[in-house]
Design brief:
By secondary structure, this protein is α+β, with helices and mostly antiparallel strands. It has helices at about 1-65, 70-75, 130-140, 185-200, 240-250, and strands spanning about 85-90, 105-110, 115-120, 145, 150, 160-170, 175-185, 215-220, 225-230, 255-260, 260-270, 275-284. The strands form 2 sheets. Strands 1, 2, 3, 4, 5, 6 and 7 form a 7-stranded antiparallel β-sheet that branches.
Protein backbone atom coordinates (compact mmCIF):
# COMPACT_ATOMS: atom_id res chain seq x y z
CA UNK A 1 0.00 0.00 0.00
CA UNK A 2 2.76 2.44 0.95
CA UNK A 3 4.68 1.54 -2.18
CA UNK A 4 1.62 2.25 -4.30
CA UNK A 5 1.07 5.57 -2.59
CA UNK A 6 4.72 6.47 -3.03
CA UNK A 7 4.49 5.65 -6.72
CA UNK A 8 1.45 7.90 -7.07
CA UNK A 9 3.26 10.76 -5.30
CA UNK A 10 6.31 10.32 -7.54
CA UNK A 11 4.13 10.26 -10.65
CA UNK A 12 2.32 13.42 -9.59
CA UNK A 13 5.63 15.11 -8.83
CA UNK A 14 7.08 14.12 -12.18
CA UNK A 15 3.97 15.38 -13.98
CA UNK A 16 4.07 18.68 -12.08
CA UNK A 17 7.77 19.12 -12.85
CA UNK A 18 7.25 18.40 -16.54
CA UNK A 19 4.29 20.78 -16.71
CA UNK A 20 6.22 23.51 -14.91
CA UNK A 21 9.26 23.02 -17.16
CA UNK A 22 7.11 23.31 -20.26
CA UNK A 23 5.52 26.48 -18.88
CA UNK A 24 8.93 27.99 -18.16
CA UNK A 25 10.19 27.12 -21.63
CA UNK A 26 7.04 28.48 -23.27
CA UNK A 27 7.29 31.75 -21.34
CA UNK A 28 11.00 32.00 -22.13
CA UNK A 29 10.32 31.52 -25.84
CA UNK A 30 7.53 34.13 -25.92
CA UNK A 31 9.61 36.61 -23.93
CA UNK A 32 12.77 36.47 -26.00
CA UNK A 33 10.95 36.25 -29.32
CA UNK A 34 9.12 39.39 -28.22
CA UNK A 35 12.37 41.09 -27.23
CA UNK A 36 13.83 40.21 -30.62
CA UNK A 37 10.85 41.82 -32.34
CA UNK A 38 11.13 44.96 -30.19
CA UNK A 39 14.87 45.28 -30.86
CA UNK A 40 14.23 44.85 -34.59
CA UNK A 41 11.50 47.50 -34.59
CA UNK A 42 13.62 50.01 -32.67
CA UNK A 43 16.65 49.56 -34.92
CA UNK A 44 14.45 49.77 -38.03
CA UNK A 45 12.91 53.00 -36.73
CA UNK A 46 16.34 54.53 -36.23
CA UNK A 47 17.49 53.42 -39.67
CA UNK A 48 14.32 54.78 -41.25
CA UNK A 49 14.99 58.16 -39.64
CA UNK A 50 18.50 58.15 -41.06
CA UNK A 51 17.11 57.33 -44.50
CA UNK A 52 14.63 60.21 -44.38
CA UNK A 53 17.31 62.72 -43.40
CA UNK A 54 19.64 61.34 -46.05
CA UNK A 55 16.92 61.75 -48.67
CA UNK A 56 16.66 65.43 -47.74
CA UNK A 57 20.40 65.74 -48.25
CA UNK A 58 20.24 63.95 -51.61
CA UNK A 59 17.36 66.19 -52.73
CA UNK A 60 19.58 69.21 -52.09
CA UNK A 61 22.26 67.73 -54.33
CA UNK A 62 19.70 67.04 -57.06
CA UNK A 63 18.64 70.70 -56.96
CA UNK A 64 22.21 71.96 -57.26
CA UNK A 65 23.81 70.11 -60.16
CA UNK A 66 24.82 73.35 -61.87
CA UNK A 67 28.43 73.32 -60.69
CA UNK A 68 30.88 71.34 -58.52
CA UNK A 69 30.87 74.11 -55.90
CA UNK A 70 27.07 74.06 -55.73
CA UNK A 71 27.14 70.29 -55.15
CA UNK A 72 29.63 70.63 -52.30
CA UNK A 73 27.58 73.40 -50.72
CA UNK A 74 24.47 71.21 -50.98
CA UNK A 75 26.26 68.33 -49.26
CA UNK A 76 27.33 70.64 -46.45
CA UNK A 77 23.91 72.24 -46.02
CA UNK A 78 22.20 69.61 -43.86
CA UNK A 79 24.99 67.53 -42.35
CA UNK A 80 24.25 68.68 -38.81
CA UNK A 81 20.71 67.29 -39.02
CA UNK A 82 21.90 63.68 -39.00
CA UNK A 83 24.70 63.23 -36.44
CA UNK A 84 24.60 59.43 -36.72
CA UNK A 85 25.96 59.59 -40.27
CA UNK A 86 29.75 59.61 -40.60
CA UNK A 87 29.63 61.39 -43.94
CA UNK A 88 27.78 62.15 -47.16
CA UNK A 89 29.14 61.84 -50.67
CA UNK A 90 28.15 62.38 -54.29
CA UNK A 91 30.03 60.09 -56.69
CA UNK A 92 29.62 61.53 -60.18
CA UNK A 93 29.58 59.84 -63.54
CA UNK A 94 32.84 60.14 -65.54
CA UNK A 95 33.44 63.70 -66.78
CA UNK A 96 30.00 64.89 -65.67
CA UNK A 97 31.78 68.12 -64.81
CA UNK A 98 34.48 68.18 -67.55
CA UNK A 99 36.73 70.46 -65.51
CA UNK A 100 36.83 67.85 -62.73
CA UNK A 101 37.87 64.98 -64.99
CA UNK A 102 36.95 61.31 -64.71
CA UNK A 103 36.57 61.10 -60.93
CA UNK A 104 34.64 63.65 -58.93
CA UNK A 105 33.43 62.46 -55.53
CA UNK A 106 33.16 65.15 -52.84
CA UNK A 107 32.81 63.69 -49.36
CA UNK A 108 31.60 65.74 -46.38
CA UNK A 109 32.41 63.89 -43.17
CA UNK A 110 32.66 64.33 -39.42
CA UNK A 111 35.97 65.44 -37.98
CA UNK A 112 34.43 65.42 -34.49
CA UNK A 113 30.93 65.80 -33.06
CA UNK A 114 30.72 69.45 -34.13
CA UNK A 115 32.94 69.88 -37.17
CA UNK A 116 32.87 68.64 -40.76
CA UNK A 117 35.49 68.44 -43.46
CA UNK A 118 35.18 68.32 -47.26
CA UNK A 119 37.47 66.01 -49.20
CA UNK A 120 37.63 64.86 -52.81
CA UNK A 121 38.08 61.09 -52.53
CA UNK A 122 37.55 59.89 -56.10
CA UNK A 123 40.73 58.91 -57.95
CA UNK A 124 42.37 56.01 -59.77
CA UNK A 125 43.15 54.33 -56.45
CA UNK A 126 39.60 54.76 -55.21
CA UNK A 127 37.89 53.90 -58.48
CA UNK A 128 34.34 54.04 -57.19
CA UNK A 129 32.92 53.07 -60.59
CA UNK A 130 33.90 49.48 -59.73
CA UNK A 131 32.40 49.55 -56.22
CA UNK A 132 29.49 47.10 -55.76
CA UNK A 133 27.22 49.86 -54.42
CA UNK A 134 27.88 52.04 -57.48
CA UNK A 135 27.25 49.21 -59.94
CA UNK A 136 24.09 48.08 -58.16
CA UNK A 137 22.71 51.64 -57.99
CA UNK A 138 23.22 52.13 -61.74
CA UNK A 139 21.58 48.82 -62.53
CA UNK A 140 18.61 49.16 -60.17
CA UNK A 141 17.94 52.93 -60.23
CA UNK A 142 16.73 52.48 -56.64
CA UNK A 143 17.84 53.46 -53.15
CA UNK A 144 19.17 50.72 -50.86
CA UNK A 145 21.60 49.90 -48.05
CA UNK A 146 24.88 48.47 -49.31
CA UNK A 147 26.54 45.30 -48.20
CA UNK A 148 29.05 45.94 -45.39
CA UNK A 149 32.51 46.83 -46.69
CA UNK A 150 35.89 48.09 -45.57
CA UNK A 151 37.18 51.38 -46.95
CA UNK A 152 40.86 52.24 -46.62
CA UNK A 153 42.78 55.26 -47.81
CA UNK A 154 45.28 55.63 -44.97
CA UNK A 155 43.35 58.46 -43.32
CA UNK A 156 40.97 58.82 -40.39
CA UNK A 157 37.96 57.93 -42.54
CA UNK A 158 39.22 54.39 -43.14
CA UNK A 159 36.94 51.84 -41.53
CA UNK A 160 34.02 49.41 -41.79
CA UNK A 161 30.90 50.93 -43.32
CA UNK A 162 27.46 50.33 -44.66
CA UNK A 163 26.03 53.01 -46.94
CA UNK A 164 22.54 54.20 -47.83
CA UNK A 165 22.73 54.80 -51.57
CA UNK A 166 20.53 56.61 -54.09
CA UNK A 167 21.08 57.41 -57.81
CA UNK A 168 20.55 61.07 -58.71
CA UNK A 169 19.39 62.23 -62.16
CA UNK A 170 19.61 65.69 -63.71
CA UNK A 171 16.79 67.60 -65.40
CA UNK A 172 17.40 65.81 -68.71
CA UNK A 173 16.96 62.42 -67.06
CA UNK A 174 20.66 61.59 -67.30
CA UNK A 175 22.33 59.85 -64.37
CA UNK A 176 24.47 62.47 -62.65
CA UNK A 177 25.82 60.74 -59.58
CA UNK A 178 25.29 58.19 -56.86
CA UNK A 179 24.73 59.80 -53.47
CA UNK A 180 25.50 58.00 -50.24
CA UNK A 181 25.25 58.35 -46.46
CA UNK A 182 27.81 56.33 -44.50
CA UNK A 183 27.20 54.54 -41.23
CA UNK A 184 30.11 52.98 -39.36
CA UNK A 185 30.05 49.59 -37.69
CA UNK A 186 31.10 51.36 -34.50
CA UNK A 187 27.91 53.42 -34.54
CA UNK A 188 25.78 50.35 -35.26
CA UNK A 189 27.37 48.49 -32.35
CA UNK A 190 26.72 51.37 -29.94
CA UNK A 191 23.14 51.74 -31.16
CA UNK A 192 22.51 48.04 -30.66
CA UNK A 193 23.94 48.23 -27.14
CA UNK A 194 21.72 51.24 -26.40
CA UNK A 195 18.67 49.27 -27.53
CA UNK A 196 19.70 46.25 -25.42
CA UNK A 197 20.20 48.43 -22.35
CA UNK A 198 16.83 50.08 -22.85
CA UNK A 199 15.09 46.70 -23.00
CA UNK A 200 16.93 45.32 -19.98
CA UNK A 201 16.05 48.38 -17.91
CA UNK A 202 12.37 48.35 -18.88
CA UNK A 203 10.39 46.77 -16.04
CA UNK A 204 7.35 46.07 -18.20
CA UNK A 205 9.41 44.22 -20.81
CA UNK A 206 11.12 42.21 -18.08
CA UNK A 207 8.03 41.17 -16.13
CA UNK A 208 7.52 37.42 -16.21
CA UNK A 209 5.55 34.77 -14.40
CA UNK A 210 8.03 31.99 -13.80
CA UNK A 211 11.25 33.94 -13.48
CA UNK A 212 13.98 34.33 -16.05
CA UNK A 213 17.39 35.96 -16.15
CA UNK A 214 18.34 38.90 -18.34
CA UNK A 215 21.46 37.33 -19.80
CA UNK A 216 21.04 38.16 -23.48
CA UNK A 217 22.62 40.35 -26.14
CA UNK A 218 21.85 41.34 -29.71
CA UNK A 219 23.79 41.01 -32.93
CA UNK A 220 23.01 41.98 -36.51
CA UNK A 221 23.37 39.16 -39.04
CA UNK A 222 24.03 39.33 -42.75
CA UNK A 223 22.20 37.01 -45.14
CA UNK A 224 25.14 34.57 -45.10
CA UNK A 225 24.91 34.10 -41.32
CA UNK A 226 27.92 36.26 -40.46
CA UNK A 227 27.77 39.07 -37.90
CA UNK A 228 27.56 42.60 -39.23
CA UNK A 229 27.88 44.07 -35.74
CA UNK A 230 28.10 42.57 -32.28
CA UNK A 231 29.28 43.30 -28.71
CA UNK A 232 33.01 42.94 -28.12
CA UNK A 233 34.17 39.29 -28.14
CA UNK A 234 30.62 38.05 -28.83
CA UNK A 235 30.69 37.45 -32.55
CA UNK A 236 28.07 35.02 -33.85
CA UNK A 237 28.41 32.96 -37.02
CA UNK A 238 25.58 30.69 -38.15
CA UNK A 239 26.23 28.06 -40.80
CA UNK A 240 23.13 25.85 -40.62
CA UNK A 241 21.41 25.72 -43.99
CA UNK A 242 17.86 26.20 -42.74
CA UNK A 243 18.84 29.36 -40.87
CA UNK A 244 20.69 30.74 -43.91
CA UNK A 245 17.55 30.17 -45.97
CA UNK A 246 15.49 32.04 -43.36
CA UNK A 247 17.96 34.95 -43.34
CA UNK A 248 17.92 35.15 -47.14
CA UNK A 249 14.12 35.17 -47.19
CA UNK A 250 13.69 37.55 -44.26
CA UNK A 251 12.01 34.99 -42.01
CA UNK A 252 12.10 34.64 -38.23
CA UNK A 253 13.09 31.52 -36.30
CA UNK A 254 15.15 30.02 -33.49
CA UNK A 255 18.12 27.72 -33.21
CA UNK A 256 19.86 26.05 -30.28
CA UNK A 257 23.61 26.26 -30.72
CA UNK A 258 26.86 26.86 -28.89
CA UNK A 259 27.95 30.48 -29.14
CA UNK A 260 31.52 31.26 -28.06
CA UNK A 261 31.56 28.12 -25.93
CA UNK A 262 28.19 28.83 -24.25
CA UNK A 263 25.09 26.67 -24.98
CA UNK A 264 22.52 29.21 -26.17
CA UNK A 265 19.24 29.77 -27.94
CA UNK A 266 19.34 32.28 -30.80
CA UNK A 267 16.13 34.08 -31.76
CA UNK A 268 16.40 35.81 -35.15
CA UNK A 269 14.16 37.89 -37.40
CA UNK A 270 14.34 40.46 -40.22
CA UNK A 271 14.97 44.19 -39.85
CA UNK A 272 12.71 46.37 -41.96
CA UNK A 273 14.39 48.60 -44.58
CA UNK A 274 17.64 46.58 -44.74
CA UNK A 275 18.69 43.11 -45.91
CA UNK A 276 19.87 42.08 -42.44
CA UNK A 277 18.37 40.24 -39.51
CA UNK A 278 18.65 40.86 -35.80
CA UNK A 279 19.42 38.00 -33.43
CA UNK A 280 18.98 37.76 -29.66
CA UNK A 281 21.46 35.35 -28.06
CA UNK A 282 20.24 33.84 -24.79
CA UNK A 283 22.43 31.61 -22.65
CA UNK A 284 20.65 28.44 -21.54
Amino acid sequence: MLLALLAVVIAIGAFAYATCSKAVMAERHVRYAGIMNIASERLAKTIRGIEMNAMNEFDEVEKHLDSPDAVIAALESKTDLNPEVRGYFAAFEPDYFPQKGKWFEPYVHHVDSNAFEVRLVGNARHNYFKSPWYIRAKQSNKSFWSEPYYYYDGTSISGHYTTFVKPIFDKTGRLACICGADLTFEWLTKELQRIDDGIKNNELLNSHIFGSDRDFYSVVLNKDGSSVTFPEDKKVTITEDFVIRDLERGKAGTIDMTVNGVPSTVYYGPIEHVDWSIAIVVAK
